[in-house]
Each structure stands twice: as structure tokens, then as C-alpha cells.
Design goal:
single chain; about 325 residues; mainly alpha; MetI-like fold; 2 domains; 16 helices; about 70% helix
Length: about 325
Amino acid sequence: MSDNTTELVPEAIYQSRADKKSGYKLSATDKFISVVIYTLFSLFALICVYPFYSIIINTISANDISARGDVVFFPKHIHFQNYIDVFKIPGLGHAALISLGRTVIGTSLTVGASAFLGFMFSQEDMWARKFWYRFTVITMFFSAGIIPWYLTMRSLHLTNNFLAYVLPVIVSPFFIILVKTFVESTPKELQQAASIDGAGVMTIFFRIMLPICKPILATVAIFAAVDQWNSFQDTLLLVTDSNLYSLQFILYNYINQASSLSTMVNLQNAGSTAMSSLSTKQTTTSIRMTVTIIVVAPILLIYPIFQRFFVKGIMIGAVKG
């Protein structure tokens, strides 16, 4: 009897759940609310995506039509001469290498420092732990300003120096807080067991905690890489050597000098039959939009791939307990 009861109870439960699921119907109010929510989110997504879409279709449309603002929803007289001409602009390729280098090196150093300091600040036996942690965090809220920052960088000989791109961002309080919170959310027994077995602090960090911290470190890497790739103010303030110009700074200059730049490109292609038509003749609008896409495209392509790490790392690293 007990065996039959044991077999029938789960079956009855599943049947009841199936009946409830199949018999449940949304009310008119629920349907209306769902339609409103989906509509609002769709409009919001369209508002976010359309500016990028508009720039893309303008870069591949006839330049004379694009300059008049007649390209709204669909490209007109499609061509790719804009990208061919912009890639011929002197210094663009070298600036891309500088941006790539600072992004890879800067991100690696930031992730490494954030991981180690976040781990150390979670260790109760660290000397003056609370003082050093508060000393680091307080820099998030107080800044001396641009002029003292520039004087400090100059005194450290970081003007016209590639190290100016990577050294100042190695220690980031925000990333350290994320990693520290993540480490504190992991079971302490892992570290205690390793310590009993004779593992030192560095062994525990590299062989136990570092593999566990992969989600939050991926999040830190995304943040740091986007910041490095998009940064141009440090180039503007610290660099006068054109060999150290980053791609974003080149974009900044090209946008400000788009008119003269379009004239230069047109003169370079004056003898080409491809430039004989107004549809492919460079304009201020075509230069600005094409360079914008070239600079923004890498982040637009890479960010969605790592978005799942970003969401998981932020949720785990921001919630304790």
C-alpha cells in the first residue's frame, strides 16, 4: 500500500501542475500590461540602436545625399568608397595599434592588480588592512583636479610616454571593491583548508581564489577595456608626439577638422575616376560618420560576446551574504 501511494503521489502532483498550467489564461488586463511593457521596451531599444544604424547607412550612402540629410531609414546609392578613403588617411593604422596596445596592456595590469588587492583586502590578518582599504577607496570621492594631476604626471616623466596610458589606471578602487566583495562571498573554508595544508597566501591566491574569481575578473576586464579603448583625454593633455596618438584622439581631431580633411582626401583622389561623381566625393558628414564607425565598431562587436560574464560578475560581486 505504501509503495503504491509513493508511486501515485508524484504522478498526482505532476498532473495537478500540468492541469493548472494548461488551464491558466491571462486576463485582459494582464495582456494589456504585457503589450504596453513590450511596446515600451521595443521603443527604448529602437531609440538606442537607431543612432548607430543611422550612422552606418549614411556612411554607405551617396555622400551628396547624406550631406543633405536625406538618408533616414534606408541607404541610398550604396558604395564603400568612404571606408577605402578613410583607411588611406595617414596615421590611422598606427593610432589603431596604439589603442590596441594600451587596451590589452592596460586591461591586463588593471585586472591583475584588482584581483590581488581585492583578495588581500579580504584577508583579516593583513597588516593595517582597514587603513589601506579606506585609503584606496577614498580616492573614488576626492580628486585634486586636472592641473595637479598634470603636474604630477609631468614630474613622473609620463608626458609623451606610452606608460601614461597604463600606469595611472592600474589601481582602480571600484574594481577592487567588486573583487573584494566577490571574494568575501566565497566560502572561507576553502582558504582555511588550504592554509591547514600548508599553502601560503600567494598559493591560495593563484591556485584557489584566482580560478574562482573568473566571473568577476571578466567583468573587470570588460569595464577596463572599454575605458581604455574610449579614452582620449589623457592623450589630449599629456601627448604631443604624433607617434603616440590613440585612435580615439585621431577621431577627436578628425571630427574637429572634418572639413579640411575631406578637402585633402578629395585632392588625393582628384585623378581617380571613382571620385568624379558627387556620390563618392568626400564631405564633412561622410568623414565624421565613417571615422566614428571605424572607432566604435570593435567595442560594438566585442561587448555583446562578453555581456553574459558582465551580468553574472556584477550580480555575484555586488551582493554579499
